[in-house]
Amino acid sequence: MNTPSFASLQVGDSLPALQLPPITRTTLALFAGASGDHNRIHIDIDYARKAGAVDVFAHGMLSMAYLGRLLTQWVDQRQLRSFGVRFTGITHLGHQITCHGKVVEKFEENGEQRVKLEIETRNQYGDTKIVGDAVVAL
């Protein structure tokens, strides 16, 4: 990991994008097991159809975890000061998620140099699925 320096970053700079493989039923089953979130809407097609969905769909927290990976591939997790998201769309089977981030503010707080980031996930069609922000100490 090549941690960026506060001085080298400018507002508008982008983090290296993180592109994930397409969402599969296996992805959902593995995430359910790892997270303990066995909500049937994500793993049981019959249940999903009864609920009015065409098929199962990804856990929102799976995409949030992907955004966490975007951040921790950029800086060590000990440098994260805040991380929050808002879910804006459903991630369906077959969607290939790419995580993006950009610097929107540089500031100092509690004796630390920090940057505020806007982060998001988009599928292969350019549809935004999650938006959020994070603060990182550099």
TrEMBL record:
<dbReference type="InterPro" id="IPR029069">
    <property type="entry name" value="HotDog_dom_sf"/>
</dbReference>
<dbReference type="Pfam" id="PF01575">
    <property type="entry name" value="MaoC_dehydratas"/>
</dbReference>
<feature type="domain" description="MaoC-like">
    <location>
        <begin position="22"/>
        <end position="116"/>
    </location>
</feature>
<protein>
    <submittedName>
        <fullName>MaoC family dehydratase</fullName>
    </submittedName>
</protein>
<dbReference type="InterPro" id="IPR002539">
    <property type="entry name" value="MaoC-like_dom"/>
</dbReference>
